[in-house]
Design a protein that fits this description.
It is a single chain. The chain is mainly β. The protein has three domains: 102 residues, no CATH class; 152 residues, no CATH class; 152 residues, Sandwich (Tick-borne Encephalitis virus Glycoprotein, domain 1), CATH 2.60.98.20. Strands 5, 6, 9, 10, 21, 22, 23, 24, 25 and 26 form a ten-stranded antiparallel β-sheet that branches. Strands 12, 13, 14, 15, 16 and 17 form a six-stranded antiparallel β-sheet that branches. Helix 1 packs antiparallel against helix 2. The protein is rod-shaped, with a radius of gyration of 38 Å.
């Protein structure tokens, strides 16, 4: 027995206690990973040959290994908080140094719209163009839009509906006009939708359907009129103008629901120019699609009315999907993709070098980061917005480990004490 063995045991136990203390200190650190002191025995090298009964000369700490197991996920009220459920790391950068990697998803938006962590490192990913298309291939710092989206005029409108074949031809108004928009007895059905001019003014576009004739041989016909904000869409006045006539061919055994035909061209491309009364809104030219209209013996019903175009909108909120896609939500109800968060991974995560602030740096042991990918692909986990990954430190285990390390420290101190007593006995020999 020698002092060297006990001294090495004291040093190893002391380092083990330091690792345990660091784990306990970071039990509430989001994204932190527990570490473990791993030991190896020490033997003196023999000069001639190898001995089979060598006595060891102590212990050393061979490494402090990080444990990258999944931590528990807790929800928060901040949509910019991100948790990784599975493998991978956020890639963050200050723009100058090599990128670093983190599991801590406490992100915020700085004054310039960049997504940053608490040390002002920028989150990396794919950017999106002005149309919301993700630009894959180049990894950049993610920046949220600060402005709104402009208004877009309506150019197309698709209507899906059923006109009741049992309907009768309505009575014309007493004035002699073909239809009176204010008198529902002069038309069969009506439906409204909102369209927009080039400045984003909302216009109430109403279609009126008036059954014109019933013919079992050539098919039933329906007159179609349209108004914009209560005035005829074509003239901008109260004088009605026929927009088109739809004809529903009789059903056959091979085609029980033939599409309607239009008197002014294809029912799938009906040009409509909405004239503005005075300066209420700008003229709107759109193409209406009525080709999916049907005529069955059932009540009138509109199953879909989908116009394009929108009013201008201001940015109201941001949401992040499980695949990392960042959606900007605007006050006009529109959504636009403005980027995608990417994750990086390593073949040997335990070789990463912790550099503080919940970050790791790549080393030769970890290897270079694999090409970044979108969450949920390959070995990469999914993202959860409004949530954070807690530390994977098990406090109960750490406290038990601390007691064990303390006892080991005491036992090594006792070996030094015993060696001292042995030497004292030798010195006292006469």
């Amino acid at each position: 027995m020698s002092f060297q063995q006990g001294l090495s045991g004291l040093n190893a136990s002391s380092q083990s206690l330091e690792v345990i203390g660091n784990n306990i200190a970071n039990a509430s650190t989001y994204g932190a990973k527990t570490a473990r002191a791993e030991f190896s025995d020490v033997y003196a090298a023999a000069l001639n040959g190898t001995g089979t009964s060598n006595i060891g000369i102590g212990v050393s700490v061979s490494t402090v290994a990080q444990q990258f197991s999944q931590g528990s996920i807790t929800t928060t009220s901040n949509p910019m908080d991100l948790a990784i459920n599975g493998g991978g790391f956020f890639q963050v950068s200050n723009g100058d140094s090599p990128p670093q990697y983190s599991r801590n998803g406490q992100f915020k938006v700085d004054a310039n719209g960049y997504i940053v962590n608490n040390t002002q490192q920028q989150l990396m990913g794919y950017a999106a163009d002005s149309s919301g298309v993700i630009q894959q291939g180049k990894v950049v710092a993610l920046q949220l839009p600060t402005g709104g989206i402009p208004a877009q005029a309506t150019t197309t409108l698709a209507l899906e509906m059923n006109l009741d074949s049992r309907s009768t031809v309505p009575t014309p108004p007493a004035s002699g006009a073909a239809i009176d928009y204010a008198d529902p007895t002069t038309y069969t059905n009506a439906t409204s939708t909102t369209v927009y001019d080039a400045k984003g003014n909302a216009v109430a576009l109403t279609y009126y359907f008036q059954k014109a004739s019933t013919n079992t041989t050539t098919g039933d016909t329906w007159n179609v009129y349209a108004t914009a904000n209560g005035l005829d869409a074509t003239t901008g006045t109260s004088t009605p103008t026929l927009l088109t006539t739809l004809t529903f061919p009789p059903p056959t055994a091979t085609n029980p629901s033939p599409p309607p035909t239009s008197s002014v061209g294809s029912a799938s491309a009906l040009p409509v120019t909405i004239t503005s009364p005075s300066s209420a809104f700008l003229p709107i030219t759109l193409t209406a699609d009525l080709s999916k209209a049907t005529e069955f013996a059932s009540a009138f019903a509109v199953t879909s009315a989908v116009p394009d175009g929108n009013a201008s909108g201001a940015l109201s909120s941001v949401s992040i999907g499980s695949d990392g896609t960042i959606q900007a939500n605007y006050s006009n109800g529109k959504q636009l993709s403005c980027g995608q968060v990417l994750l990086s991974n390593f073949r040997n995560p335990q070789g990463l070098q912790p550099v503080g602030n919940n970050d790791w740096a790549a080393t030769q042991a970890s290897g270079a980061a694999l090409p970044p990918g979108t969450p949920g692909t390959g070995s990469l986990g999914l993202l959860q917005s409004g949530a954070l990954e807690e530390s994977n430190v098990d406090l109960t285990s750490e406290l038990v480990n601390m007691i064990t390390a303390q006892r080991v420290y005491q036992a090594n101190a006792q070996t030094i004490k015993t060696q001292d007593q042995v030497l004292q006995t030798l010195v006292s020999l006469r």
